[in-house]
């Protein structure tokens, strides 16, 4: 233990857009609802240097840190793993033909799914480099100059299936923070129009441009797009106000500001169902799915509350990305989505 399809590997997320349940559909840009694809939605490209003979790395969990991790053969039949910012987790015995998960210490989501393909003794230490993927289903495609100039809203859908033999509980999904939250205690936005957000704290961990979630206590006040920043100031254009279903609202000196990806999340109207059926389909990436409640929560309590999923059940999750008119060019824009659930 731990066997595949247990712990964090209990839930597996797939592209959509297949002709039937589990059929081939590897294109993330065609993940627009319908049937579950056979292609797993991935966050990392995996490169193995000095591989351990007889061991194949199948998948890297999204809870890993990008960078160089280490897969170590503890003895002839046992492996352990540490991701780039972690320590070695528990040793896992693996026999020829088995697929197992190996976890970084105290981080169930920071795991590798590995298969043993030989009865020969295991030995050595492999460097496993995890590189954050560009243009996957979560990051979506590049924004063209035309789309950036006029503004753009796009959609993607995935299907998450409980692949384990046991139920999972308390499944939640929310939008992650891209830097350290601060308080807009120096300058706030007015009721409308362009403006600045200024903090006496530091914005040095924030993206150079992107989205800011403004909260009044525990409630969302507004989500805005900022076109540039200094260490203390965000510049918000007029077209960057009231993003992702929020409305332009005057701020207060006690507001907290958090850097976030410019996305919202929603559960497909079918909810949790028996594995196999299709969810709704949209005709293209700019067509909104119907009947959804979009959420932009940045905590487990304010995101998607999916709850329990029995063995074999699935749920469709939709993502919406907004780009305001006049968005500035950037080499990369990170999308961070976080999950929690209870599993065997």
């Amino acid at each position: 233990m731990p066997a595949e399809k247990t712990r964090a590997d209990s839930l597996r997320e797939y592209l959509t857009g297949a002709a039937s349940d589990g059929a081939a559909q590897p294109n993330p840009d065609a993940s627009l609802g319908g049937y579950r694809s056979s292609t797993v939605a991935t966050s990392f490209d995996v490169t193995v240097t000095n591989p351990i003979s007889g061991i194949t790395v199948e998948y890297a969990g999204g809870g890993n840190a990008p960078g160089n991790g280490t897969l170590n053969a503890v003895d002839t039949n046992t492996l352990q793993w540490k991701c780039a910012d972690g320590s070695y987790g528990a040793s896992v015995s693996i026999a020829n033909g088995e697929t197992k998960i190996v976890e970084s210490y105290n981080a169930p989501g920071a795991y590798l799914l590995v298969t043993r393909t030989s009865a020969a003794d295991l030995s050595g230490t492999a460097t496993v480099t995890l590189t954050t993927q560009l243009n996957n289903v979560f990051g979506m495609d590049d924004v063209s100059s035309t789309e950036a100039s006029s503004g753009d809203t796009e959609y993607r859908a995935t299907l998450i299936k409980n692949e384990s033999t046991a139920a999972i509980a308390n499944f939640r999904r929310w939008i992650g923070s891209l830097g350290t939250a601060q308080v807009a205690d120096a300058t706030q936005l007015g009721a409308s129009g362009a403006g600045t957000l200024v903090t006496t704290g530091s914005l040095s961990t924030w993206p150079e441009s992107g989205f800011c979630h403004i909260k009044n206590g525990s409630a969302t006040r507004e989500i805005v797009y900022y076109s540039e920043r200094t260490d203390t100031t965000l510049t918000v254009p007029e077209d960057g106000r009231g993003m992702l279903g929020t409305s332009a609202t005057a701020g207060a000196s006690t507001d907290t500001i958090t850097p976030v990806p410019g996305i919202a999340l929603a559960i497909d109207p079918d909810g949790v169902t028996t594995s196999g059926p299709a969810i709704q389909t949209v005709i293209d990436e700019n067509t909104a799915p119907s009947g959804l409640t979009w959420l932009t929560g940045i905590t487990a309590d304010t995101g998607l509350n999916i709850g329990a999923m029995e063995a074999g059940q699935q749920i469709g999750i939709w993502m919406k990305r907004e780009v305001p008119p006049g968005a500035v060019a950037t080499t990369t824009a990170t999308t961070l989505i976080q999950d929690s659930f209870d599993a065997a």
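The longest strand covers residues 152-162. The chain has a mean pLDDT of 97.
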